Automatic annotation (TrEMBL):
<feature type="region of interest" description="Disordered">
    <location>
        <begin position="17"/>
        <end position="59"/>
    </location>
</feature>
<protein>
    <submittedName>
        <fullName>Uncharacterized protein</fullName>
    </submittedName>
</protein>
<feature type="compositionally biased region" description="Basic and acidic residues">
    <location>
        <begin position="25"/>
        <end position="42"/>
    </location>
</feature>
């Protein structure tokens, strides 16, 4: 029997965690009691909603999750980008309201794309490692 590469074991463990997805994690915020609405809420934030507009990146660990939040200072908007809950933000701006919202949406979209790409790559490596272990008689 040969020893397996520790990297293969680590990748397989990470891939299994990622495969469990978001359903395993507890929600980050308690659910807000829903109030009946007469009118539909617009998909894009309005001028008053841009301040505080926020999105979080994907991932199984809150300690390394990216978050982008728009804040307003006078007539200008800034985006604070943080990693985890207690990090010092990297500030982008000043920019217009629309540019700040677009910036947040674009960064979140790119982070999600890269996360899915990494997840797919890791799953492929874990599957390949499993095949190699099967071929060598290890399980």
């Amino acid at each position: 029997m040969t020893q397996s590469d520790p990297t293969d074991d680590a990748l397989a463990t990470i891939a299994s965690i990622l495969d469990q997805g978001e359903s395993v994690r507890a929600p980050e915020k308690p659910p807000i009691e829903e109030k009946p609405q007469v009118d539909e809420k617009p998909l894009a934030p309005t001028l008053t909603e841009a301040d505080g507009y926020s999105k979080s990146g994907p991932g199984p660990m809150a300690a390394i999750r990216l978050k982008w939040t728009v804040r307003r200072e006078g007539s200008e908007y800034y985006v604070d980008e943080t990693i985890g809950e207690n990090s010092t933000p990297v500030v982008s701006g000043p920019m217009s309201r629309d540019a700040a919202v677009w910036f947040v949406d674009d960064r979140e979209s790119e982070a999600r794309r890269r996360f899915e790409e990494l997840k797919s790559e890791m799953s492929g490596r874990a599957a390949a490692a499993h095949i190699v272990r099967k071929d060598s008689g290890e399980i």
